[in-house]
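To the wet lab folks,

You asked to see what we're planning to order before we commit. Fair enough. Below is the target structure as tokens, and below that is the sequence we designed to fit it. If anything looks off to you, flag it before the synthesis order goes out.
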């Protein structure tokens, strides 16, 4: 257990590890933004495509 903490402390002082951690955090934030955007706009796009599809189906049926 102590060895694990020593390794974590050593990684905290290693510049490459800190840089990798920063890139990992940036990737996580970007992923969260993409998921939030897809969820928010996905419902709106689904409704828009359904409306367009229904309009086209009505036109094709001669209504």
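Sequence we intend to order:
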């Amino acid at each position: 257990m102590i060895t694990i903490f020593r390794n974590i402390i050593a990684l905290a002082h290693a510049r490459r590890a800190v840089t990798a951690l920063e890139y990992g955090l940036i990737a996580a934030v970007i992923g969260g933004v993409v998921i939030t955007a897809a969820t928010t706009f996905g419902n709106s796009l689904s409704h828009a495509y359904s409306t367009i599809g229904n309009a086209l189906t009505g036109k094709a049926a001669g209504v």
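Structural context that might help your review: Helices lie at 2-13, 15-60. The two ends are 73 Å apart (CA to CA).

Thanks,
Computational group
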